[in-house]
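As agreed, record minuted below.
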Amino acid sequence: MFDRAGNLTPDVLPMLDQPLPVIVRPSTEQDVPFMVDIYAYHIQNGLGDYNAEPLHPDDIKRRRKAMLKRRLPHIVAELGGVVIGYAYAVPFLKRPAYRYAVKHSIYVHKDHLNSGVGRKLLPALIEACAGAGYRQMICYVDSANAPSLRLHEAAGFERAGLLKSVGFKFGRWTDTVLLQRPLGPGNNSLPGKLENASDEGGAQTMH
């Protein structure tokens, strides 16, 4: 690896040009500060979330614990030890009849938007929800967010509807696209018992 003068040998130099892998793994409480930073940017600058104020770390901790208590997936994308995105699923609606449907959210750090982080997180989230026994996955995307629409459609989501002028942010009305994807057998068989997604599991290393 090194010559006698202490220089890197040529066969090692190409290895330094290899990009670091993006690791998708279950979130931990230590990831919360990263999530706060990521979420704050989208609240202040994006149309993917309509909360009026950024969340406090304790708010995200409570949300995360509530999801894990229900064994719903809550995952992060990590690059070089830094969380650059996170995603989670929650019940679509609270009434028991909707218990086999989930809705999800994905947030990516502003410096890594449109760099493929969403393509790492979304398949992992789909797999976790399908493995837990859920049958439908739903999301809401701003109609002007073309990258997110392409991401979801590439992952098998279809446009189920358009909600016109349901949001008002940055001084203008916004439309929301409703997207839906079946999980597992979808509605082709009767549902079984929900196994629920574990908050533990092996990390996936992706390049």
User: Anything to note?
Assistant: Residues 117-131 form the longest helix (15 residues). Residues 159 and 179 are 5 Å apart (CA to CA).
